[in-house]
Amino acid sequence: METKKTKTGLLSKKMDRRTFLKLSGAAGATAAVVGFPNVLRGARAKEIKIGSIQPATGMIAEIGQACRRGNILAVEDINRRGGIKSMGGAKLKLLLGDHEGKPEVGRSEAERLIREGAVVLVGAFMSSVTMAIATLAEQRGVPFVIDIAAADPITQQGYKYIFRNFPRSSVFGRCFAEYLTKIIERSKVPVKRAVLMNIDDLYGNVTAKFTLKALKEKNVPIEIVDQIVFPHAAKDLSTEVAKVKALKPDILLPIVRIATSRVLVRELYKQRVPLLGIIAPGCPGFYEPEFFRDMGSLAEYIMDSPPWINPKSRMFKEVNERYQKRFNKSPLDTNSAYAYEGVMIIADALERAASTDPDKIVEALRKTYIEEHITLGGPISFDEKGDNINAITGMLQNLGGRTRLVLPERFAEADYVFPMPKQLWERGV
Amino acid sequence: MSLHLAIKFGISGLLTGGVYSLIAIGLSLIFGVMGVINFAHGQMMVWGMYIAYWLFVLLGIEPYFSLLVSAGALFAMGFVVQKLVVNRILDYPEAMQVLPLIGLGLILENSALLFWGPDHRSPQMSLSLSTIWLGDVMLDVPRIIAFVIALLIAFLLFLFLKKTDTGKAIRAAADNRLGARLVGIKVDHINNISFAIGAASVGAAGALMLPLIPLCPHLGHDFTLTAFVIVILGGLGSITGAMVGGLILGVAESLGTLFIPPSMKQVVSFTIMVVIMLLKPQGLFGGKR
Q1: From the CA of B81, how many Å to the nearest CA of chain A?
Q2: CATH, residue B195
Q3: What ipTM was assigned to the predicted interfaces of this complex?
Q4: Using the beta-carbon criterion (under 8 Å), do B129 and A270 form an inter-chain contact?
Q5: What is the CATH topology of the domain spanning A45-167+311-366?
Q6: Strand partners, A403
Q7: Nearest residue in A to B140, CA atom
Q8: pLDDT tens for residues A302-361?
């Protein structure tokens, strides 16, 4: 009840502003007739600047561009529907920043966008960069909606202006443990031993740590017989895979990057490592269209549990259509979808805040409740730390030349196949 | 089991080392003749890989044949680079020689990014999954082929340097530039040829690497560094040194993972480099530079 009261309070203020805008609009129109162009400019529907900071160039430019496209499409969609209605149809304007994958660049880009008038920031894909931007945004009192970045600590600093839609690393681990338990318990053949492999960079080590922790906490009925860490720049995994083979695991849990996914699967094929399944705890490399292009039938049956789009969402289908039309590119993927949602969340908050005052925006963000959206999980809603409480990851499996969502059941497109009906080398490549 | 693994790792390392050798030979040749370190070496290899990649994807030519095209294209590139850039900086202080070549590396890397995008490419070739089993030890066919071809190219290069007139002229220019000029060798031209041959051998190595590692524009740095370590190990400017150095490094990196975590593989190569620098700074086969 009390919140409602404050809402009415906000609303009445909103009305004031709207009347004010109308009045000034009228004044502007008069002025236009009389011929004062300066006054006219001030009277147009206001423009609200949002700063988008993505890795648009550099090592992960491809992903950064997808994120940027997601941000752009969301802004265009909102403007087409009449902008922020509570602010007299104010249009959103996206200021584009590029952090090149470097924290210091991210910080200076954030600084620049704030100077250019951004009232909210969105970004930034990489956790290290996002952390740097978050610190700055907090200092400057500029709300920052993180569309993608998983590292837990970003939201654990007690920051007031930081919100995150993306599932954090511990959620990755928790969901993975849940899905893996389900797969093991339903399996007709016993699944006892697993080997965890991870790439030796911040991302790989953190994901491995959270995976192991979650498997232990959730009492997943499997023994992790070894953890094999391989170098970031690995060009050859023959020694690592030889070790895996010697350990005789039932399943392999790999945490790789795009380049190593190919090397790993080919090496498993060559060394004839018998496995019931390859189940990745949420990493890139196994589900992209390029993986199927390069690997053909070897891509089949591999499972992975990254954050994902909701294939059953009607809204997703619409956005995806517009995205493909607008950018003439591959479909809306999980990165561009989260980027799209980032701006969606901001617009929703602006609509309710009816103001560009940072504290009012933050206040509105806290009360976010978006039921219909395009990624997995329940309604978007933030806890006191700024994390989306309903963010989850999904379990994917490569089936019939493309990747499909197989868990959780309420979103699933297909049933999963476990154990793999054919080993890698039995598939007649 | 430990012995079994050691044999396995040793063989795998030796095979990789063969390709390392070919990469390093190019670098060593260029240094030997011009005294310039080609910091764009890895990036040149990446271009060789892209050429082989497109020939495979568009025309279906396997890299073992298209390596001739890769080598040819890189030969031309090397010739032009030497003629336009390196010949002008030969007498500059070393620190200044480094910059244009690093710049060239950046240009090559980023133009590859511009033309072909940042994604990793790893096409399935007819032999990329074939293996031979010797008892329990697995041998990777593409790696064996790469090893054999790399050694063959190195051997031909060696013969070329020993037996042909141009080869002898190159060695003469490497040994004593002024002396070579005095006996009538066109040293500038020889420089062009040497750089071109160095680039061609790394181009061929690129084609051989294509079935082994996923290709992307940013691969270059690591290989420049690896080649550099090998050349220091074997002795700057020594072809035999580069050959042996490559094999040693390949085996050492691979065997090292028996004792230390694989993620620290590079510790082995850099430790070797530091030890060599301390005990035998001219390298295993280095002369009296």
Answers
A1: 26
A2: 1.10.3470
A3: 0.71
A4: yes
A5: Rossmann fold (3.40.50)
A6: A398
A7: A270
A8: 999 999 999 999 999 999 999 999 998 678 989 999 999 999 999 999 999 999 999 999
